Amino acid sequence: MFWRRSRGREVDPGEPRIVLIGRPGCHLCDDAEAIIARVAAESETRWVKVSVDDDPDLLARWGDQVPVTLVDGRPHDFYRVSENRLRAALKR
Asked: What's the pTM value of the predicted model, to 2 decimals?
């Protein structure tokens, strides 16, 4: 999966349920990505990762807290991703 620019994107119902906000070269982001990829595959849930460095709004809001995981557009985890919490959130 590639880092995707988020600037200018509109949110629609077809958007992925999980968004990983991080930055390239971040080891915590790599760890979060592995967990999200595993849980998303198990539950057949769409997800995407975006680079906080490519969007000034994301950088201002989340730049010091990456990786940030959003589920259904709401903040879910910061810094580390809990597999169990993520699975539970996707069941809702």
From this structure: 0.82
∠58-32-45 over CA atoms, to 5°?
Answer: 90
What token pair was written down for 55? Answer: 């969007």
> Which secondary structure element, helix H or strand E, spans residue 84, and what is its range?
helix 83-91
Q: What amino acid occupies position 67?
A: P
Query: Which of 4-8, 32-36, 41-45 is predicted with the least confidence, judged by mean pLDDT?
Result: 4-8
Q: What is the CATH number of the domain that holds 61?
A: 3.40.30.10
Query: How far is the CA of 77 from the CAs of 10, 25, 33, 57, in angstroms?
Result: 23, 19, 12, 19
User: Is 4 domain-assigned?
Assistant: no
How many structural domains does the chain have? 1
- Look at residue 63 and tell me if it is in a domain: yes
Tokens of 52: 């906080």
